[in-house]
Design brief:
Number of strands: 3
Radius of gyration: 20 Å
Helix content: 55-70%
CATH architecture: Orthogonal Bundle
Pfam families: MarR_2
Strand content: 5-15%
Largest sheet: 3 strands, antiparallel
Organism: Streptomyces longisporus
Protein name: HTH marR-type domain-containing protein
Number of domains: 1
Number of helices: 8
Domain HTH marR-type: 26-162
CATH superfamily: Winged helix-like DNA-binding domain superfamily/Winged helix DNA-binding domain
InterPro entries: HTH_MarR-typ, MarR/SlyA-like, WH-like_DNA-bd_sf, WH_DNA-bd_sf
Shape: globular
Length: 172
């Protein structure tokens, strides 16, 4: 196991970031991204629990809702965005509602649809914790992302503007 005092550049190179293997650049970049996401999630878990007193999965729900200013999201849409089963989501929403962080209400005209929204308490907690949470993400990424990983990640990103500007007729 690596010494936590080691500098990130002293750590062994990530095999997926080195290239030269069988994987195309997109899959190599995907492997780097998965490693980075795992590192961020590991660091965030304790900070989220300490600052917001919710699980990491509940935190992800709060983040989705926080990006919906003045509105909520249907539970089915939250499940789709997070790739979670609806039954698990129902439990997590109930926990968040019990903590006073979300509200649930029926969608007008659809008696089966449920919309979830942040409460003022949740907005305040997220606002208070956002600096610490952002620093945690940045720190975790800095520990696993060097120049080689950054370059590999670029393999996932489409060419800017140039690709988008091509019409269907112009594409090869």
């Amino acid at each position: 196991m690596a010494d936590p005092e080691e500098h990130p550049t002293d750590l062994p190179e990530c095999p997926s970031a080195q290239g030269g293997g069988l994987l195309p650049k997109e899959l190599r970049a995907w492997m780097v991204m998965l490693g980075a996401v795992g590192a961020v999630e590991q660091e965030l878990r304790s900070v989220v629990k300490e600052r917001l007193d919710v699980s990491h999965d509940e935190f992800l729900i709060l983040c989705l809702l926080a990006e919906q200013p003045g509105a909520g999201l249907r539970m089915t849409r939250i499940a789709e965005l997070l790739g979670r089963p609806k039954t698990r989501l129902t439990y997590q929403i109930a926990c968040l509602q019990h903590a006073g962080l979300v509200t649930r209400q029926s969608v007008c005209g659809d008696k089966r649809g449920i919309e979830v929204a942040l409460t003022d308490k949740a907005r305040r907690l997220l606002e208070e914790a956002s600096g610490t949470l952002a620093s945690t993400v940045t720190r975790a990424l800095a520990q696993v992302m060097g120049p080689d990983q950054h370059e590999a990640m670029c393999g996932l990103l489409p060419e800017p503007a140039k690709e988008a500007a091509l019409t269907e007729d112009e594409q090869p």
